[in-house]
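Predicting structure from sequence has reshaped protein science. With that in mind, we have picked out one protein's residues alongside their backbone shape tokens:
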Amino acid sequence: MFKFKKQTYSEDMFADTRMSFGDHLEDLRIHLWRAISGFLIIMAGVFVFDLIGLITGTKFGIGRPMLDFIVAPVQDQLVEFHERKIQRMLENLDSDPRLKKLNRPRWIKMSIPQGEGGSGKEGGLPLRGDGQAVSYADLMGRTRYQVNEATEALQQKKWRELKGLAETLQETAQRYDRATNVPRESQAELGNWVEKLTSEVKDLENAADKENIPRSLEALDHIQELLGDQGLTRTYARIEEPLVLAALLGQAIGTTQGRYTLSTLSIMEAFMAYFKVALMCGFVLGSPWIFYQLWSFIAAGLYPHEKRLVNVYLPFSLILFLLGVLGCQFFVIPRAVNALLWFNEWLELDPELRFNEWLSFAIMMPLVFGLSFQLPLVMMFLERVGIMTVQGYLSYWKIAFLIIHILAAVLMPSPDIFSMEMLAIPLLGLYGLGILLCRLNPKATESEEETSESEQMVEV
């Protein structure tokens, strides 16, 4: 019968090493340098990916997509805010005397093409190559129609369609020499005018072939200048409900042209905000490597049972942190922004949100939630070291209720009670979870600790 005593560990964590204090500092310097080097490499990768997305004109990247992700909640709430404002105005058109007066019918001046040239996609012209003469007004109408189609194709970057329209414009321009009913004021300069029009259309065709946006825009502008007011008839149109039309147009323009979005008040604000987001992305992506290097240095001074505790509680801590961050991003922030914008709606004020201020809010708020969700682990730690007990947590729940609300008010970036309660309510639930975990996994008693020490003697 032999008995082997289980390995015990000296209180001196450096008892088994010959490294001096200077050697430990050198080891720390090496790990820190590796962590910083890895972080800088990942930061460079973030900028490279964003540069590729910029060059290709796509959403490819890291920093820019993350920026869009952060800004999306407030943009969605701003769009809904303005939509509610427009809907409320439309509902009050008949009951509000001021709106009713502004919404009375109005006459506006308009210009429409003469002849039948703009009546269809082929412009009402005879088929190509039949030799028939066409009126000047019909040719002008077809020219204007094709120029408008070319402008729309350029906006959508449909280069093949734009090139085809340029070729059709070239055919239309060549028919002006055989046009009938040419206005007297245009007869003298018709040949010179047709030559200039043909030249500009040729430039448009070459620019479309090379997919050159600035040259295509320049050629279309010159063609519009050559057309001028020719072939147009002035008329008047009656708008029955101007405010309804303005509301619908304003809603479409505000949503598509970026009116309902954040604003910058300095020339450096957008750059600094993007750099801040890119820095955050680099740190998050590089955190496994950074923490690995720090852990490699710290773990050398820990006992095996201490390493085991870290390995058990670290994944749980990470899960709680991610739950706090994701819950804040997808559940709390949209409702907090909606609640804050309600005051603008109530006071009939238009919000002008700054990009930099929102970015600080959108970064700090999830971080506060993620750290606050570590409450169960803090409670277990206090119970393990003997500072608190399960009965103590239960008896002091009123004090905990007060402290949680005070911390929620201090930690939240926004001062509104809604955001404070959105943090306080989950923390109260986590307080209960912490009590449950302490009860299910109680601290070992002194007799159990003595028994554990005696079990270190192994009988073979």
User: Anything to note?
Assistant: Strands lie at 3-5, 106-113, 232-239, 457-459. The first strand starts at residue 3 and ends at 5. The chain has 17 helices and four strands. The two ends are 6 Å apart (CA to CA).
